[in-house]
Specification:
There is one protein chain. The chain has 102 residues and is an alpha+beta fold. 45% of the residues lie in helices and 26% in strands. The protein has a domain of 66 residues. The protein has a four-stranded antiparallel beta sheet. The longest helix is centred in the last third of the chain and has 15 residues. This is Phage tail protein E. Pfam families: Phage_TAC_7.
């Protein structure tokens, strides 16, 4: 489940919460990446929702910042949802405006 917050970030509710020490993480905020957050990633691979590419970018744009080990152990449904939201930020407004009209 996701909740839209402006155009700069979105909150994703995890199906399987993560445990970090004594803290349970149930929601992750995904911020719209800037070009610096995309360095070292092939955009075509990211648009294809390549897991390795997403694992490189997500720690740079999530709050709390996810670690690669957390992403590796994450429920695949949660990884898919986070990656989907990340990819949607990369689409031009002309494309995403069509989503709201359907």
């Amino acid at each position: 489940m996701t909740e839209q917050k402006e155009n700069t970030h979105i909150t994703v509710t995890l199906d399987e919460p993560l445990t970090r020490g004594e803290t349970t993480i149930t929601e992750i905020i995904v911020r719209k990446p800037n070009s610096g957050a995309l360095r070292g990633v092939r955009l075509a691979a990211l648009m294809e929702m390549d897991v390795d590419s997403a694992m490189l970018v997500l720690p740079r744009v999530t709050a709390p910042a996810l670690t690669k080990p957390e992403l590796i152990l994450m429920n695949p449904a949660d990884m898919l949802n986070l990656t989907k939201e990340l990819v949607l930020f990369l689409l031009p407004k002309s494309v995403t405006s069509d989503f709201q009209n359907d």
